Amino acid sequence: MKKRIKKTRKKDRLRVAYFVASMNPTQDGVSRVVYKWIECLKYRDIDCFFFTCTIPENRHKLKMHKVPGWEFPLYKDYKLALPTYNFFKKKISKFRPDIIHVNSPETLGHAALRYAEKNNIPVVATYHTHFTSYFKYYNMNMLEPLVWPYLRRFYNRCDKVYVPSKPMIKELKGHGLKKMEYLPHGVDMIAFNPKYRSIAWRKKNGVDKKIVILFVSRLVWFKDLRLFVDVYDRLKNNRNVAFVLVGKGPDQPELEKFMPKAKFLGHQTGTALSTAYASGDIFLFPSTTETFGNVVIEAMASGLPCVCANAGGPKGIICDGVTGYLSKPNNIDSFMKNINILLKNKKLRKKIADNGLEYARTQSWDNICDDLVKSYNDVIRRHEKNIKRLIT
User: Fold this and answer.
1) Domains along the chain with CATH numbers
2) How many CB atoms lie within 10 A of CB 375?
3) What H or E segment, with its residue span, contains residue 17?
4) CA R_g for the chain
């Protein structure tokens, strides 16, 4: 039986159905990236519909449909959808998407993929989260050989997989993933800018005469915060240095015990976040689990020299010794060597920061969204050609 091929007239708006585990804009980097896409795509005459387990109170006038789910046992801030498309079938059928975009390979994404296959709708995915890198933090390394075959099957069933960093593409190729396309994340140079540096902020937090080592992200151990604690232990008696952490997470109480002299500012948004970034002096980000590292490029845009792990996304953002420093992952001596270089040389801090700022200015969200829309249209055209070939 031949299935009808839906033709989209040029004057029709491109309809995209997004499947995102959480639409809470404060949840994590994934949701923040999605909202940047929303902001850019609304100027490109694209009709979007979002299917999710978590809908924020302020829905930003977006078309959303909540899919039932349950708390993920290892991280209760996240929900997993019930693994069937019956809970969104009616809504998505009425919307009639030209393409489906999946943001995670968990149960909601898997249901979306099965729906797309059954209804001959092209489907793309973004490799946002490097799940297998988390296993060691939960003493579950034995699961990795079981999970990679699932991830390989899931992503290779998609028409296209967007990966935000070239080092991650190389790693994923080694695990057998195909049809990948490099699509980095951008940075909002209006929101993140050195102009937000504030002496008042520094005085308020008691760090006005100190070199502030800043961390911005979720406070969870899989961000390699144990190394951050080790750096704190090495420098806690240095009166010229202060540690400031921005973010929240389930491991904050334990971190506060390990770092009693550090400032914990909690979750920040808007101008408060912009000010916190720009008012620091060195951005320390030891995480080895990032597919990109939004906070790194935000820190660079804010005028901070960055010291990061030579792994994952940050490895693809930073040019070592030019726009920041890359340290041997989980190696305290390597991190301390780079941090001490910056602590001892104010002029070098300024030079590295200026280089990083210049690079950040080239990473426009508008250009990236243009590339995304172009890729959507290419995928749709290729998919329609393949269907025509099969039914003729």
Assistant:
1) 14-186+364-391 (3.40.50.2000), 194-360 (3.40.50.2000)
2) 17
3) strand 14-19
4) 22
User: Would you say 317 and 296 are in contact if contact means Cβ atoms under 8 Å apart?
Assistant: yes
Q: Is the pLDDT of residue 217 over 70?
A: yes
Give the three-class secondary structure for 199: helix
Is the predicted pLDDT of residue 3 greater than 50, yes or no? no
For residues 357 and 300, the answer to whether their CB atoms sit within 8 Å is yes
d(CA 243, CA 218): 16
One-letter amino acid at 161 equals: V
Q: Return the amino acid letter for 20.
A: V
Six-digit token string for 244: 């400031």
Which range is least confidently modeled, 17-26, 62-71, 79-88, 130-139?
130-139
The pTM for the full model equals 0.83
Count Cβ neighbours within 10 Å for each residue of 112-134 and write b for 16 or more, e otherwise. Answer: bbebbeebbbbbbbbbbbbbbbb
Cα 330-333-336 angle, rounded to 5 deg: 100
What confidence tens digit (pLDDT) does each residue in 142-170 have? 777 788 999 999 999 999 999 999 999 99
Does an H or E element contain 41, and which? helix 29-41
Question: CA–CA separation, 70 vs 47, rounded Å?
Answer: 29
Q: Which residue's entry shows tokens 């390989």? A: 152
Share of the chain above pLDDT 90, in %: 73
Q: Is the pLDDT of residue 253 over 70?
A: yes
